[in-house]
Write a structure and sequence with these properties.
Elements (H helix, E strand, L loop, with lengths): L1 H116 L6 H43 L12 E8 L4 E4 L12 E6 L2 E11 L4 E5 L13 E3 L1
Antiparallel strand pairs: 1-2, 1-6, 2-5, 3-4, 3-6, 4-5
Length: 251
């Protein structure tokens, strides 16, 4: 009986061991299948990752190339715009020059038409010669006028000297409308300096009124004359107020 029980126990143990082995073998098979599936999935994902990284690197490289090309294109565009602006400016300058040239041409044509209208058929060289002769005549006229002015001044001076000899106290006539300004006053010796001289027609012994704002202050008599100024004595009997610098003198 004991043996039977022992045999049964051994058989049961073997059966249990066989069942456990079968289960363990199933687990091993299942685990190996899961492992193989994981490795396959890992390889697939790794391959995809490598491909994605490669694609990303390529995309970045393409992006950098595109940026460089864009910068180059922008630079080329800026240069092109600058050239266009420069061409526009040159075009504007040329247009202005063309307008000026046309205006000069029209003016020259008008002058040419005027030359054709000159009676007698005179040509530019002949007209230039006439202009030169006219200029010479004007120079001679001016020289005669200057000489005549000097002679007139001498004659006036001689006439004044003669009048002084005949009537020492008689005033000398001055040019009509002669006027000036008092430049300086010497109250001690009662004389003034005027800003008119022989060039303006001032003459010794000529008498002029002194005014300020339309009010008569007195009368002065010219004593000596220079080219641009003269010295005049204040006539005491005519003095109506204080004569000062800036007062007006008139004849």
């Amino acid at each position: 009986m004991l043996r039977i029980c022992l045999v049964i126990a051994i058989i049961g143990g073997l059966a249990a061991g066989a069942l456990s082995f079968i289960k363990i073998q199933d687990i091993i098979v299942t685990t190996r299948a899961a492992r193989d599936q994981w490795h396959s999935q890992f390889d697939t994902e790794h391959t995809a990752k490598v491909a994605a990284e490669t694609s990303l690197k390529k995309t970045k490289a393409d992006l950098e190339t595109t940026k460089k090309e864009l910068a180059t294109t922008k630079n080329d565009l800026d240069n092109a715009n600058a050239k266009v602006a420069d061409l526009d400016k040159k075009n504007g300058d040329l247009a202005k020059e063309l307008d000026t040239t046309r205006a000069d041409r029209d003016s020259a044509q008008q002058e040419l038409e005027q030359w054709h209208l000159i009676p007698g058929g005179l040509r530019p060289p002949q007209i230039k010669a006439m202009i030169d002769e006219l200029a010479k005549a004007k120079q001679a006229r001016d020289a005669y006028a200057a000489e005549n002015k000097i002679l007139h001044a001498k004659a006036t001076d001689l006439a004044n000297q003669l009048a002084n000899l005949i009537s020492p106290d008689a005033p000398v006539p001055l040019p009509k409308g002669l006027k000036g300004v008092v430049m300086a006053v010497d109250p001690k010796f009662d004389f003034v300096v005027l800003n008119i001289g022989s060039d303006q027609g001032a003459l010794p012994r000529g008498e002029m009124m002194v005014e300020k704002d339309g009010t008569l202050l007195g009368k002065v008599r010219i004593a000596s004359v220079d080219k641009e100024r003269c010295i005049a004595n204040i006539i005491p009997s005519w003095q109506r107020g204080e004569i000062m610098e800036g007062d007006e003198v008139l004849y």
